[in-house]
């Protein structure tokens, strides 16, 4: 039997340096030597971090084409996706899709986060690298995640990592794939999971991962395209 929309959503829910240069001493004559430095305080501001390379984000729901969404989420009612709330859509955005095809359920969501350079927090790129590492760590430590496996695919942005794990929810076994990718100062986190309901065969994790990596690569290209 088909699960209710509420059940589906519940199953799928698996975020100036200063220095003082005081120098000099009194000459015997009581006058400062001509070659002695002044005793006045000198200050020097810390160098500004490099500016952010990317200043724009694509809309999260537009980061993946509708064809890609239909391939990954067969049976979805809306390939346009559900947009998450954001106080600044040019700094962060999220989108999700879900669908049931027969007894095969799929959930896909994506988040985009862009960083600016900050004199205190560091350059946009260094901040993005920190967030990238945090997202990978969070995926590895997902609550109730079992049989965790990691990978480092090439060709997705400037750096990418994958985290795979199994999850049981309401008696159903889910295969979850997370792909985290960094494109300059933008971090993409894509989650893709699937399950077979009513004792239907579970999807193959390798197939899900392949699709998730393909989607993440498409999203990375969308970020680059938005900044041309």
Question: How does this model look, in words?
Answer:
By secondary structure, the chain is of the alpha+beta class. The protein is 24% helix and 28% strand. It contains four helices and seven strands. It has helices at 5-12, 66-72, 124-140, 205-226; strands at residues 82-83, 92-101, 104-114, 146-151, 159-169, 172-183, 186-196. It has a seven-stranded antiparallel β-sheet. The radius of gyration is 25 Å and the shape is globular. The relative contact order is 0.17.
End-to-end C-alpha gap: 48 Å
Radius of gyration: 25 Å
User: Helical region count?
Assistant: 4
| Percent helix range | 10-25%
Q: Give the strand line-up of the largest sheet.
A: 1-2-3-7-6-5-4
Order of helices and strands: HHEEEHEEEEH
In round numbers, the mean pLDDT is 85
**Proportion in β-strands:** 25-35%
Shape: globular
Strand tally is 7
Structural class: alpha+beta
Low-confidence stretches: 1-42
Largest sheet: 7 strands, antiparallel
Brief overview:
This protein is of the alpha+beta class. The protein is built from four helices and seven strands.
List keywords for this structure.
228 residues; alpha+beta; seven-stranded antiparallel β-sheet; 4 helices; 7 strands; disordered N terminus
Write the layout of secondary structure elements.
Blueprint (H helix, E strand, L loop, with lengths): L4 H8 L53 H7 L9 E2 L8 E10 L2 E11 L9 H17 L5 E6 L7 E11 L2 E12 L2 E11 L8 H22 L2
Antiparallel strand pairs: 1-2, 2-3, 3-7, 4-5, 5-6, 6-7
